[in-house]
Amino acid sequence: MIRVILVALFLLSGCAGFPGGSGPTTSRAVPAVDHVPTGTPDAATARTKLAALVVAAPVKADGYVRDCDKGAACVFGQPWADVDGDGCDQRSQVLARDLTDVVRKKGRCAIQSGRLQDPYTGETITNVSKIQIDHVVPLAEMWRSGASTWTLERRTQAANDLRNLVAVKGTVNQSKSDKTPDEWMPPNAAYTCPYARIYTGIKADYALTVTPAEQAALQKALTTCG
């Protein structure tokens, strides 16, 4: 009799959560986010490109100065230049591309509001001030793997290449800093493959070198592409 009463109370409470039952669950899988810029190679092409990269030790970061304030070296040019001359800087272009429900500031290219499904975490970000633009291949890493010998014009082009720019959650971007794939990968495992495809494509297109550890990490990441 006591057991019958307990079962009745359980059902009345609306909890149909017996182990193995079909009731609702409070856990939610991280959504797969396949934000990849136009021009990103598919998995098979990325594997081919990766195999062709020159494997070499990185050069020292001597001379690398990203800061452009007060006469600093500014080796990759002014951030977020309007390299294609369409009147919108690259940051605004990436936000407009990667966000949904975009609202621009009146009479300007700048983004006032929008919604980002962050590929690095799977989270939804609705505050534009908490969104940053990540260089998938960090500029410091470009410098270490070949860009130190380029002209300023080529470095400015690379720094503003839309294929290497992705809108992401700011705090995650900061934690990544200038780490390479053997040191850091997106917390959202569903984005491992897209991230490796973007990274490999940029390294190949700019003829940048990779270290053995970096190459191995990219090879492993590309195996997740299916």
Automatic annotation (TrEMBL):
Q: Which residues form the signal peptide?
A: 1-18
InterPro entries found in the cross-reference section: GmrSD_C
Q: What keyword terms does UniProt attach to this protein?
A: Signal
Q: Which parts of the chain span the membrane according to its record? A: none
- A Pfam family that this protein carries is GmrSD_C
This protein's superkingdom? Bacteria
Per its UniProt record, what PROSITE patterns does this chain match?
PROKAR_LIPOPROTEIN (PS51257)
PANTHER family noted in UniProt: AMP-DEPENDENT SYNTHETASE_LIGASE DOMAIN-CONTAINING PROTEIN-RELATED, SECRETED PROTEIN
The protein's name is GmrSD restriction endonucleases C-terminal domain-containing protein
Classification lineage: Bacteria, Bacillati, Actinomycetota, Actinomycetes, Pseudonocardiales
